């Protein structure tokens, strides 16, 4: 199941896109869950990162597609944008939000289906990757676990360190530890939970990471952490 949002303020294009998606489902044996929004403001209101693909009209009355995409990117680094537009003037700015591409109105099925096929291949490959959804200031965010190097406990909050930046989220470390243990995370210190795939070595009671960051390795947790690391690396 691939979740797709259509954000379009013209009914005729909403119906066209829905019919194209249904046709693609039949031709390629895919299954889409489709939700329609009539303006950018509608989708960003209480946005949750549940969508795989967003078909986004650039020119809308209240909040245009580019501004909508920028807002969504604040909470969702993974969703795939395809712009639907009557002009290339704005679509060419899509690189700013890492858009997959754009289709010009009137939308031809061939070019739409070719771009959709690229998006579907990308989504299906991405589904092999693991994500967690976390609460952040202003909403929720989907985080790719591969990009997380370590998680740091700070009082009653957690600081998730990723390759693209850091996220502050509420919650106890213990709950996060239990959630991530099946995905190759282990505590090396009461305040640090480390992604074992990012570990490059152990030196002077510190865990060395790919980012060159050094995380404290406590004496009380050293043996268990080393056992977890050995198991992760295959003995």
UniProtKB/TrEMBL annotation:
GO terms for molecular function: DNA binding; phosphorelay response regulator activity. Keywords: DNA-binding, Phosphoprotein. InterPro entries: CheY-like_superfamily (IPR011006), LytR-like (IPR046947), LytTR_DNA-bd_dom (IPR007492), Sig_transdc_resp-reg_receiver (IPR001789). Residues 132-202 form the HTH LytTR-type domain. The modification 4-aspartylphosphate is found at residue 57. Residues 3-120 form the Response regulatory domain. The keyword DNA-binding applies. May play the central regulatory role in sporulation. It may be an element of the effector pathway responsible for the activation of sporulation genes in response to nutritional stress. Spo0A may act in concert with spo0H (a sigma factor) to control the expression of some genes that are critical to the sporulation process. This is Stage 0 sporulation protein A homolog. It comes from Lacrimispora algidixylanolytica.
